[in-house]
Structures are given as structure tokens and as C-alpha cells.
# Entry
Amino acid sequence: MSSATMDELRQWLRRAFTLDTVGQLLGWDEQVNLPAASADQRGEQQAAIAELQHAAAKAPRIGELLTALEGETLSADEAAVVKQARRDFDRATKLPVEFVREKAQQGSRGYHAWAEARAKADFGLYAAVLERNLDLARREAAYLGWAGREYDYMIDKHDPGLSAARIGALFAELKRELVPFAREVVAAARREPAGLAWRGFAVEAQQEFLREVTERLGFDYERGRIDVSLHPFCSGSGDDVRMTTRFKDDEPLDSLFSAIHETGHGLYEQGLTRADFGTALGMAAGMAAHESQSRLWENQVGRSRGFWRFFEPRWRERFPAQTAGVTSEALYRAINAVAPTLIRVDADEVTYNLHIVLRFEIERRLFDGSLAVRDLPAAWNAASAELIGLTPTSDRDGVLQDVHWSDGSFGYFPSYTLGNMMAAQLWYRALAERPALEADFARGEFGWLLQWLRTQVHAQGRRFDALELTQRVTGEELSPRALVRYLRERYG
Amino acid sequence: MSSATMDELRQWLRRAFTLDTVGQLLGWDEQVNLPAASADQRGEQQAAIAELQHAAAKAPRIGELLTALEGETLSADEAAVVKQARRDFDRATKLPVEFVREKAQQGSRGYHAWAEARAKADFGLYAAVLERNLDLARREAAYLGWAGREYDYMIDKHDPGLSAARIGALFAELKRELVPFAREVVAAARREPAGLAWRGFAVEAQQEFLREVTERLGFDYERGRIDVSLHPFCSGSGDDVRMTTRFKDDEPLDSLFSAIHETGHGLYEQGLTRADFGTALGMAAGMAAHESQSRLWENQVGRSRGFWRFFEPRWRERFPAQTAGVTSEALYRAINAVAPTLIRVDADEVTYNLHIVLRFEIERRLFDGSLAVRDLPAAWNAASAELIGLTPTSDRDGVLQDVHWSDGSFGYFPSYTLGNMMAAQLWYRALAERPALEADFARGEFGWLLQWLRTQVHAQGRRFDALELTQRVTGEELSPRALVRYLRERYG
# Structure
């Protein structure tokens, strides 16, 4: 790929990418560092950068270069670059600059309103934000020619090629298997002895252990960090990946698994091809693929017997008093405990997907107009009772628990379960190629798996969408079957 | 100030200001958080933002608005806004965009080259950076019509109204008094018992004490933070002020006084009028005025008996074992110990200004061509021997000690001593208005002084330059006399 036209296109894309990374850093800093009274200024900064990033993404010269390249015979890689650039360019040129600015400013305000509403468990402080975010989402879809298919638009934004109908079908299949299976597992778990009561896990020692784990999994701290925020996340690009987690001294597994989850995202970003940043060859395939990486490392790897065979002695070394009376089997059971919870990020692997089904169904109803924002808390609580068997007594544990909608990120939640499906499919494929994977883990070796993911997934960039990528790597269509098989094997 | 033209100008200035704050955040993050291998990407980000900030500052519409306003009858405030905006606009329009981009990228590279050179005590790794930064400075001066007066340009950038000749005269007067006085004080100090050997001051307890002190001085942590970096600094705007310090468990006073120094800067920024950010009414008068605030809080306040009467018991409470055998008098002497040192930021108040004279004289020679970069270490060491009485055995303690030149910030150093002069003049004026100032401090009350500085200095913004401001507030010309008086009173 050396034509002058293609080179020039790549330079323009790189510029827009660089501004995007600045916006991401502002967002990271907002959640990790921002003083309480500095939110307005941060909103102004975010809006200014979003506007400039938008201007860079819709530079008329990009349109000219694309038109020229679309008339040429291109290699598969070149065609992938052009296809994605066209998608981004069309999206950028169809959104008015005032709209982009308004949305960025609202995203920042929305985050702070959500944080306050959550702290005060007061949905009323958040409702207007949601109304406005839904309105912005509808307007955005309309600008881009998706009027009447607004929720499909929100899904396609995160996962090209997917739709509410396709996800609805996949989730229906999943529900058929999972709802009765989860009931069985939960009932069996209730007959087991009570779980462990953790106490006094010093945050500093947790941080050190977490650093050891994430480094051994392969996260490169020369090109990334981990910090603390209210809601764990991973942002930034492969050259500077910023992950977060949170610590409580009575929930050491929560911070650890959050961190392993974010490490999965971080490894994906660090595995993208640096020279291709800003183009389809150097960006993640989509959010389902992204979540497949985070969930695979968190669950298939992090909750495996092999993983703990290696890390258990190291963990006990750091927390001798706190782990003194705990057998290995009790620890493994605690790590893989199944118990319905109100909070998605605290959920076990089995019931986790029911949280996602809940959010998907609610988002679909918010967009098709059959659910009003004011009725959200009640609808949430009813769905929670039905799917998870628990009813929130406070909106803090219900509709206010997640950050996503605060900046208008609708259509993202399904990616978690799509990612779980894909993770299970990737896992069985990797196992087929290297049956000794868990024996690797037990020796503290994660390099084979990382290398395999680097080749099969990370280095592919966005040459393929989640559906194609799954088919190519595993030889099978994306489906819930591998996930159900995996959950049955581990929890049955 | 309500005319539509003026309002529109203020909006344009606000936009450039907002982008400037983004650049500052990138710079803060670079020194506080950046992973080791992420420097190239940060350089790209800095360059992109600098270019966009530059574009915003030279928007043609600003030129049109200025021309219109320059033809109108303006109030004093309006005239100040227009004068500063014209200065910035002319500077922005005369610098080519490629130059701005090159300088920003070089600034980031230069910082990392300096950090490496300093760590390895290898001036050779830094020389090319300095050559290139000097070349950039000369080119910048030429673009702006200061060819032949390059060093004056660098000074005027930081302190409008000042020049190498004026500073030369002020420094000559200061040297006449200070060099013999410093010799006397140093000789007397040598006859005193050895200073205290500090040990085992836990960083966390230092952080807590430092937080207590800076909060009581008036720093608003709702609109700012303090973090850790290699070289302490203060950046950001009044809505989000980011200070740094550094900690060693055997140098508790170093981190504390660094933090009080940066707090002085931070209080100034937080005292600017928020609604006027981006205009002369909401920006600091210049770097000398800025340093007057940091040095006044660090020295006149932080090293006073009154200050320690209040904070000493609090300090002892946090460090009972470490301070057990130390009398109050010994503590006060340690805080105000005079002993020549190679490192500027470690220097006592008396010899500190000799470090600045050294840098001013070297910068002047670098710019007038009488000193070549390759001869810098030798020239530095010779001047250090002559002025301070000590010769560095490693460039780490000599020419490599300061960050400033790494991003081309020549002409800044004189501001420290100009700030010391101004601080002493402000101090005596405040004392004349409220003789009980130290009694306030002894009760932990710093509000009168802060309020006085808010009114006299902070709220003035850049209505006046350092020379005018000093004259207006103190009724006297800027001069070294008050500084010498103060040093004689405290150390004589």
C-alpha cells in the first residue's frame, strides 16, 4: 500500500485519530482526576476537541481521496481501509458541527448528573439527562439516514453488521437455554455452604498483586497504566492504554476481576498494529470483539483452575492472615460462585448475561417508544425480578447502576453478551489448537494464548466485522451454543 | 463592556484559551502519568493541539474585531483586553503553522531527552536539543520582528515590559549587595552546629500534612489537585489548577516548601476572574508577578516564625518519633538554614538569587553568541564556583538540573528573582497595612493576606505589567532594595 493517494489518506486519518486520542485522555482524566468543581471547564474542553476532531474527520480532502481510491483496483487491505474511512467520513459529514458540540457537552454534563443521581439514589436528577440523550440519539440516527431504525443505528455504531433483530434472535436462543440453567445453578448454589466473608485486604497489597497478575498476562506498562475510578474502564490507544479499577478492602476479587477484564481490553488495544492506527487495519473490529477479549481473559482464563494453581500461592503470600482459614477449593468456589445480584458488574458468569438481556430489552423499548423514561425505574425493577429474581430497593442498585447511558452510549450493552458468545467460541478453538492451555496457566505462562489472540484477532484490526471474524477464526457462525456449553461445563 | 463586538472578541479568545488549557493538561499528564514508551504519541498530540490552538488564536475574525475595536473609544478595561489580544494575535499571525507544530513536537522530545540526559548525567544527550531549541528561539524572534534582540524577546514573552538591559541593571544592584552579604551569612552559618539529619518521614504522612497546610493557606481542592512529578510545577487554569511536588523520606522540608511554592502559583490562578479567562482581565500579569506569589507564600509566609508557631505542633503530631529530639529553635533554624548548594530548587533564600543571576548571565551569553552550547557545562561550572562557591562534579548537579530549557523556555529564570523582589515589596506593603500579619499566621489565619493579594494582585489580571503593578500596589518602583532589606532582617 504505497500509492501517494493512499498515503495521503492515511495521514488525514491519522490526524483525526490523534485528536480522538486527546478526547479520550480528557475523558480518562475526567473520571480519574478531575476536581469536583472543574466539570464545566472540562465540558468546554471536550466540546472544543470533539468539534475539532469532527472537523478533521470531515476534511473535504478526505472525500476527494476516497472518491479517487474508490475508482481504483485495491488490495483487500486497501479496500478495508477505504470502506471504513468512507463509513467514518459519511458519518462525520452528515452530522452538523453544532450537533457534535452539543452532544459532547451533554456527555460531560450527563456523566456528572449520573454520578450525583447515583450517589443520592435519585432517578429524578437523571431523567432529564436520559430524555435529552435519547433525543440526541434519535436526531443523530436521523442525520445519518437511519430514521425509524434508531436502535439499529446505535448497535451498528458499536458493532458494524449487527442489528436489533439479529441480536434479538441470538438472545432468544440464549434465553431458552440460560434461564432454566441459571435457575438450576442458583438453586444448587443455595444448598451449598455460605460464601467466604472477606475482610482487611489492604488496598496497597491488592494493587501490587493486581500489577503482578496483569503484567504476567502480558499487559505492557511501558505503554499503559492502571488507575482508580468509580466505574472501571479502559480507554486510550495502543501507544498509551489507560485502564481503571476500584478497590474495597472487603471485596478483593471485585477489583482483581475488574482489572483482568480491563486488561483484556488493553491487550487488544496494545495488539493493534501501531503503524496502522487511525485506519481499519489498526482499529478493533467492534465492541463485541472487544468484549470477547475482556471476557475471555476475565472468565475463561482468570476463573480457571490453571490460573489459580499459579496465582493462589502468590495471593496467599500477600494476604496470609486474610486467607489463613480458606481452602483452595473454597477459594475456587468463591471465584466461581453463582448468586444472583442486582449489580451487573458484580454478577457471576452465569447470571451476567441476564443483566444484558434486561438492558437490551429495555433499550429496544426506549427506542421503539413503548417505554417512557419516567417509567424506566419501574420497568427495570419488574424485569430484574423476572429475569434475575431480585428487585432493587433503591435505584442506585437498579437503573442508576451503569455509566453507559449518561453520555448517550445506547446499544453498547448487547456487546457484552455477544462478546461472551465470541469468547467461548474463541476459547474452544484455542483449546482445540493447544489442549494444554490450562497447564500453561498453571505454570504462569499466558504467552501462547496471547500470541494466538494477537495473530487471530488483534492483528486483524477491522478487516472483518464480529460476524465474519468469528466465522473465519472458529469456522462457525456467531451463536450462543459455545457459551452455553462452556457455562454447563464450568457450572453444571 | 457589553458591545456586541467586544462580546464576540471575548468568545473567540475564550476558544483559544480552552484549547490552551487542553495543551496544558497534556503537558501535566506527560510529567505526572505518561507511560515510558508513549512519548511519541504525546508529542503528536501536543503538536496537533498546539497547531489548533495557534489556528484559533489567529482566526482572521479576531483581526477584524480588533481593528474595529481599536477605532472605538474604550474603557480602561476594554483597552487592556484589546491591547493584550492584539499582542497575542500579532504573535500568532506571524508564526507559520509548521513552525508552531515543529516547536511543540520538539518541546515534548526535548523534555524526554532532558530526563534521560539528567538520569544518565550525560550532557551529550542534551546538547543537540539545546542547539535546536536555541535555533527555534532565534527563528521565533525573527518571525516576530525581534531579530538582533532575541533574548529581549524571550524575556518579553514571559514579562511584558522587561528587557535584558533592565534586568541586567536590577541584577547588578542586587549582586552588589547580595554577594558580600551571602558570604557573611554563609561564613556565620558554618560556625553554627551542623543541621538536622532527617530520616523516616513516611511519604503518606507528608502528603497528609502538605494537604492540611495548602488547604489552610487557601488552595481550593474543589478546583485543583496536587500530584507527584520529577520537577515540581503548577499548570492549568483557575477552574482546574494542577500542582505537583515530589517526596523523599529524608527531605520532608523539600516537598513541603515545593508544595507551598506551587500553592502560591495556584492561589494566583484561582484568584483570577473566571468570567474573564482568556482575556487580559483574567490572566496573570506575567511570570515575575506569578513568581512573586509563589515566593511570597513559600518564603515570607512559609518560613516565618508565625507560620511555624501554628504548624509546628501539627507537624510533630504526624512525626512524633522523627521530631522527638528537635527543639523549636533548631527546627526554625533548619527551615531557614543558609548553606550554598549546587541545586537551585534546594537553595536557601539568600543564595537562591545567585543561581538565577548565573542562569540569566548564561542565557544572555547563549543568545549574544559569546557562549557555545558545547562550552555550556564548563561555563556553568565556572560561574557556579564564582557565584555560589561550589563546583558541580556531575552535570546532573549543574547544567542538567533544570527542566526549563528542554522545551525552549529561555528567559524565564529571571522571573524568579524579579518575583523575589516584588514579593518583598508586596510583603512590606501588606505589613504596613496589617502589622499583625504574623500573629494571624500563628493562629492559622492566612485569610487577610490572601484577600489582600486577591484584591491587589490577582483580581487585577493583566491590566498592568509587573513594573506598573508594583508601582501601583507598593508606591515604589520595582527594585532589589526591599528584598535585600528582608534578607538582612531575616538572616543578618
About this structure: The first helix of chain B runs from residue 4 to 32. The interface with chain A takes residues 15, 18-19, 21-22, 25-26, 29, 33-38, 40-42, 44-45, 48-49, 52, 220-225, 237, 239-240 of chain B (CB under 8 Å). The mean pLDDT of chain B is 95.
